[in-house]
Amino acid sequence: MTIIWELDFYSRPIVDENKKKVWEVLICESPTDVGADASNLFHYAEYCSNSQVNSGQLSEAIVKAIAKAGITPDRIRFFRQSMNNMITKACSDAGIPCQPSRRTYMLNQWMKERSLTVYPLEEGYQAGSNATVAFPLTPPQPMQDALIAQQWGTVALEASALSEMGDWKIDFGEAYPIAQLELAPGTLVPGLILYSQRSLAIAAWMSGLELASVRYDMQDGQQLVLETGVIDRWALAQLLNMPLQAEARQFEDRKKEAKGVHFLAIQSSPDSEEFAGFWLLLDAQ
Known about the structure:
Order of helices and strands: EEEHEHEHEEHEEHEEEHEE
Helix content: 10-25%
Number of helices: 6
Number of domains: 2
Radius of gyration: 20 Å
């Protein structure tokens, strides 16, 4: 089983005795199974001073986290673009591949928890001094002709049905434990299904991306857009008439009702009972 860690290295709303920002390394495991117990996942936290903000310090923290976990991850995800060079070098020095990604769901939740239950208790805490992370909105890139689906449709599954995802036949994909979001079992979770005779090739290509979300984009034209990495966006489907646009609006409404949970699936045809690809996705809340 592939082991993925999520990492952040940045200043926190705390200052030391010299009124300098305190920095922190946070590392946690990415849950890739819909039935995973999030409370049992690996977590590692380490404060450091402003003078220790360098790739060597971060690489040492990664090595210490590996020793604590007793296992080396296959790769590390990080979302903070401003720290790209330092994180990339630290991971390289530690011998671990890394990828920029918005798919740091567990890390984001942990950071919110620490903002409420840990940092306010620290000496030198300064409320509201950390800015919210924002991702730039880049123009969607066109999909290669060979990767364009012949047909697509929006669907909805009850949250309880997604708990069985581990039993489905899926060639490429990734899940996460949606139970922690406390959705009612009957909550309708929306999804976009792409149909293509080249479904396996499309799913294989998408598996090399860090899939974040599917969105209805009205800024760059009426279309459905796939967001990957931290800034990449791909045009999936053009919405050329009012019925399709209404379908996309319903998709967005259902996402809000499902606390941002949605999915992207790829099949060879509407009659298939297998998935070439299936990814659970989550909009930032």
